[in-house]
Amino acid sequence: MNTTITDNNYTLQEKLQILADAAKYDVACTSSGSSRRGKKGELGNAEACGICHSFAADGRCISLLKILMTNHCTYDCKYCINRVSNDVKRATFTPEEICQLTVEFYKRNYIEGLFLSSGVLKNPTYTMERMCETLLLLRTKYHFNGYIHVKTIPGVSDELLAAAGYLADRISVNMELPTQESLRTLAPNKTMKSILNPMGKVQSTIASHRMAIGKSAYMERSRGNQFLSHGIFSDNSHQVFREKLESQSIPPQFKNISNKNSTAKNIQDVFSQKENDMTNRILTWENACQLAPLDMSDLKRSFAPAGQSTQMIIGATGESDYTLLQTTQALYQGYDLKRVFYSAYIPLNEDKVLPQIGTPPPLLREHRLYQADWLLRFYGFQADELLSEAQPDFNELLDPKCDWALRHLEQFPVEVETASYALLLRIPGIGPKSASRITHARRYGRLNFESLKKMGVVLKRAHYFITCGGKQMFHTPIEADYITRQLITVDKKDLWNIQHSNESYSQMTLADFGIS
Q1: pLDDT, tens digit, for every residue of 378-415?
Q2: Could you tell me whether strands 113-117 and 308-314 are parallel, antiparallel, or unpaired per DSSP bridges?
Q3: How far is it, in rounded angstroms, from Cα 59 to Cα 65?
Q4: Hey, which end of the chain has fewer CB within 10 Å, N or C?
Q5: Could you tell me if 145 and 39 are in contact, meaning their C-beta atoms sit under 8 angstroms apart?
Q6: Predicted confidence (pLDDT) per residue in 212-231, tens digit
Q7: Contact 404/395 with Cβ under 8 angstroms?
Q8: Taking the model in full, what pTM does it have?
Q9: DSSP states of 94-154
């Protein structure tokens, strides 16, 4: 396959069609976490609540201009449509073309920010230099103050990593696969070390910068997490994670990470004290702008204020849900990631080690992993509570929270008028908002099932697991088989929608925006 740049005859519209379509398999592009008001003489702003208001049916954000800089690639990842051995149309944007597209789309209110990724053109360093040049032009020449998420290329220099962090709002490195063995099989040009090394540097730099401006070293989380002493972001859990690091009892890909050389003292609660070459050259806030190829200090920008994220492909290899969820928890605790995204593998390439073309994407499995991810981040659950080696995969018929509750019926029913906030969150049908409303309302009066419904409690699930004023909503037996049958009936419509959504499994096209 010819990988040289031969797209000089493509128009800008044709390049946009090729490279926007090539980017649709990357899902890690939400934009919450960065807050920046508009400035006189500059274009755009970024809101902390997230600028991505619209999502396609498969969950992909559509209000960012999501494109690849190029789909030329020297790598031969077996799962990727843009791999070097595939015969596909190739195109490359120049930095100026990306800037013009971003600004013009923004002015027309088609988008509110930019998500920029790329294939590996020539080598990682050359590719990242072009991406950083693009971001620098947007921030300086075009005065674009809106949200930017950039995907970094594993293996680039500290200087380019620092430049990307200062120019973008969120920075990410795709893990793609949760184990070194899977990477060796499907992505021979990548290693776990080349992926985790920049993650550690970015995390340390973000933490150091936050502490230098008087903030906590850790990224902001849901306010409800402060009441969850058992949650993965609590001080107690950080301490347990550190002990696991020291005892080497965590997933193998995370055994040797450390942060001894970081200037952020509080990060020691997350990483072990063991020296390791993966983090010997961790960036700090004091020298990151000096490492950047251009003087970033003049821009007076925060380093990746929206944090970092990553993505894992689901279904291309044989890892269990338990392995994926353990990896997810270790990434949240060890690298303070803002989000871990999951992408159901779509069979695109012929290869004996991949699912056959025509095999439907495992959308229901992806859905269950996202539900479990929410339980880790907002509900105070741990990976080992939801799955185990004896039960390594999620129940397809029940959501993870209901499945957990049915395996722990000795803890139910729960009296909602006296239960703690943390315990309320473990009841199926009760989320953070309704749990908060319950704890607030019961200070001023008695509760009943009608008031619970008005607070947002999903009683068709919750009533099996709660009492209100000492009474059940209905006289139902607290038996696993009976409740399971009832819950499966309730969820049957939702399951059907998920299982059949692959019939229209596609990202919105330019035509959906009225662009032809």
Answers
A1: 999 999 999 999 999 999 899 999 999 999 999 999 99
A2: unpaired
A3: 16
A4: C
A5: yes
A6: 888 888 998 988 998 999 99
A7: no
A8: 0.84
A9: -HHHHHHHHHHHHHTTS-SEEEEE----SSHHHHHHHHHHHHHHHHHTS-B-SEEEEEPPT
